[in-house]
Amino acid sequence: MGKIIALANQKGGVGKTTSAVNLAAGLGLLNKKVLLVDLDPQGSATSSVGISKKSLRFSVADLLIGGCRPDSAIRQTEFEGLDLLPANIMLAATEFDLIEKENAESHLRKALSTLRDEYDFIILDCPPSLGMLTVNAMVACDHVIIPMQCEFFALEGLVQLMTTIGQLKRRYNPRLAIAGILVTMYNGRLALDTDVLAELKKHYPDRVFDTKISRNPRLSEAPGFGVPIYYHDKSSLGAREYLRAAKELLNRV
Ligand SMILES: Nc1ncnc2c1ncn2[C@@H]1O[C@H](COP(=O)(O)OP(=O)(O)OP(=O)(O)O)[C@@H](O)[C@H]1O
Ligand SMILES: [Mg+2]
User: Fold this and answer.
1) Distance CA 83, CA 36 (A)
2) What pLDDT score does 38 carry?
3) Does ligand 1 come within 6 angstroms of the Cβ of 224?
4) CA–CA dist 249, 142 (Å, integer)
């Protein structure tokens, strides 16, 4: 049975999508069969793997409300081992609709239950909030990865996120575990970055991924070409670090 892993942090722009796309594609290169699920109405993960948000007949929004079968919404990508369950702005309305439904928090879990056996990994890219879509991701997944930028307020946000994860675990998903905190956009020459990292390791000694993702312009270029980093510049620092993080993830889960 495949493992379901959510990339979540309510803070915006911390590298959730970049990490979801490149960990998913990295696992694909490591011979795993991977489904990347875009759970953000912004549809950034969808565009990042070269699928047009406008051309979707069915998306994760339809799947969540039982409006289509999984295989109608899933798209193959051009990349090794990687399929996509796409999203676009329609998902914003679906989040609203979900709130009114019974078992609002469990729709994704139900939708993914039949897909689990078809994939080694299902990677969920969450939106920047703790709303119903992120709650659905936390209820559906086995592990959470928290991408985090070493900023002044990052630790505060982390405490809030850990509290929410604890509540959802108790209430809905006892098997929910934290796979780790992945430091993104790291610059070891900045005192702030090294200070925040030291603080993070002090509070969560076993949780922080050994692999840090450095700030690397190649990583921000790749989505513009609709390709994961390995297909944009496979010798870049970003490609090497995300592949190392994908290998570390295999050991952590
Ligand atoms: N390691 C990195 N080096 C350089 N730029 C990066 C890196 N990681 C992410 N970025 C860039 O930072 C921006 C935010 O990253 P990303 O979209 O992955 O964050 P996010 O948490 O998914 O954002 P949102 O909360 O809006 O969904 C993007 O423009 C992305 O290309
Ligand atoms: Mg994102």
Assistant:
1) 6
2) 98
3) no
4) 13
User: What are residue 38's phi and psi, to 5 degrees?
Assistant: -85, 115
**Which residues lie below 8 Å from residue 223, measured CB to CB, with a gap of 6+?**
17, 18, 21, 44, 47, 48
Q: Mean pLDDT, consecutive 10-residue segments, the chain of 253 residues?
A: 96 97 98 98 98 94 93 96 97 94 95 95 97 97 97 89 96 96 96 94 94 98 98 98 98 93
Which ligand 1 atom sits nearest the alpha carbon of residue 186? 1
Global confidence as pTM: 0.97
Please give the CATH topology (third level) of the domain spanning 3-252.
Answer: Rossmann fold (3.40.50)
State the DSSP code for 117. Answer: G
Q: Cβ distance 106 to 172 under 8 Å? A: yes
pLDDT of residue 152: 83
Which of 181, 220, 241, 242 is the best mutation target for the ligand 1 pocket, counting ligand atoms within 8 Å of the beta carbon and taking the most? 220
Q: What is the pLDDT of residue 153?
A: 87
pLDDT at 141: 98
Q: Where are the alpha helices (DSSP H) in 124-234?
A: 132-140, 154-171, 191-203, 217-225
184 Cβ below 6 A of ligand 1 = yes
Q: Which ligand is nearest to the CA of 19?
A: 1
